[in-house]
């Protein structure tokens, strides 16, 4: 699992909310230009793992290495400046600000206006609807469009790794399909992604590799397609 080609390495990660321990030695890795999915039942620790990786929840034990550097417990804003962007679940946008202002907020760590302009063009190419709606307040967008904006905002820093927490949560079937189309487009463009997703079948179908968590521990790991057709994974997590 651990190797020099990995951009992210998580080893024996433990994390807790107060006295309640959620993660019990989780390990995972993401290679450059790879799409890795994490699935598992509710309460498995999937979102907690992401928060511990990106600096929103300090781990109680273990190690997180990003691009060869130890970032364990590093504050979230400093993690972002190193090139690790995070899109939380829940379509979090600034509703009273325009689409363009939201995107510009995503680039707050970038000092070069030319880089910001280039990043805007890249996200507009990926999400043309955002160009059309750039002067519209984000709060007036549909749920699916707000999710597009949340992802696009994270892309404004041109991250080396983008972490997505439940990108399809609460979306209509139409927008679920659209989100996964965009995830595949991002992968085709060379982006490296770590995705937690409650739609397990979809997540496994697009993943190069995947991890199944259960009760805060690793249960299965392997190529996404292999796990999708694994009889035990199907029985336990895919309703088959």
Structure description:
With 240 residues, the chain is an alpha/beta fold. The chain has ten helices and ten strands. The protein has helices at 46-54, 76-81, 99-106, 113-126, 128-132, 143-155, 173-188, 200-206, 224-228, 231-237; strands at residues 6-17, 20-31, 35-39, 61-66, 69-70, 84-87, 161-165, 193-196, 209-214, 217-223. The strands form two sheets. A six-stranded mixed sheet has the order 6-7-8-3-9-10, sandwiched between helices. The longest helix is centred in the last third of the chain and has 16 residues, at 173-188. The two termini are 28 Å apart.
Distance between the termini: 28 Å
Q: Major sheet: size, sense and barrel closure? A: 6 strands, mixed
Rounded to an integer in angstroms, the radius of gyration calculated over CA atoms is: 17 Å
- Overall mean pLDDT stands at 93
Binned, the helix content reads 25-40%
Topology diagram in text:
Elements: E1 6-17, E2 20-31, E3 35-39, H1 46-54, E4 61-66, E5 69-70, H2 76-81, E6 84-87, H3 99-106, H4 113-126, H5 128-132, H6 143-155, E7 161-165, H7 173-188, E8 193-196, H8 200-206, E9 209-214, E10 217-223, H9 224-228, H10 231-237
Parallel strand pairs: 3-8, 3-9, 6-7, 7-8
Antiparallel strand pairs: 1-2, 1-4, 4-5, 9-10
Helix pairs in contact: 3-6
Structural features:
240 residues, 6-stranded mixed sheet, 4-stranded antiparallel sheet
Provide a concise account of the structure shown.
The protein is an alpha/beta fold.
């Amino acid at each position: 699992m651990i190797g020099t080609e990995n951009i992210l390495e998580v080893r024996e990660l433990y994390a807790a909310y107060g006295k309640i321990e959620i993660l019990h030695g989780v390990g995972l890795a993401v290679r450059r230009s790879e799409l890795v999915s994490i699935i598992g039942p509710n309460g498995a620790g999937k979102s907690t793992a992401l928060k511990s990786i990106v600096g929103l929840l300090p781990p109680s034990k273990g190690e997180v290495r990003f691009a060869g550097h130890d970032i364990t417990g590093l504050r979230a804003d400093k993690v972002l400046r190193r090139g690790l962007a995070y899109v939380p679940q829940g379509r979090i946008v600034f509703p009273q600000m325009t689409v363009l202002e939201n995107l510009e907020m995503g680039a707050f760590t970038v000092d070069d206006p030319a880089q910001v302009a280039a990043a805007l063009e890249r996200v507009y190419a990926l999400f043309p609807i955002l160009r059309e709606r750039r002067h519209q307040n984000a709060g007036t967008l549909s749920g699916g469009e707000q999710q597009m904006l949340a992802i696009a905002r994270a892309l404004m820093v041109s991250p080396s790794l983008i972490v997505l927490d439940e990108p399809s949560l609460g979306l209509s079937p139409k927008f679920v399909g659209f989100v996964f189309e965009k995830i595949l487009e991002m992968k085709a463009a060379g982006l490296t992604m770590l995705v937690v997703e409650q739609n397990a079948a979809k997540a496994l179908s697009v993943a190069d590799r995947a991890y199944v968590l259960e009760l805060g521990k690793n249960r299965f790991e392997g190529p996404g397609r292999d796990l999708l057709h694994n009889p035990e994974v199907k029985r336990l997590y895919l309703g088959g």
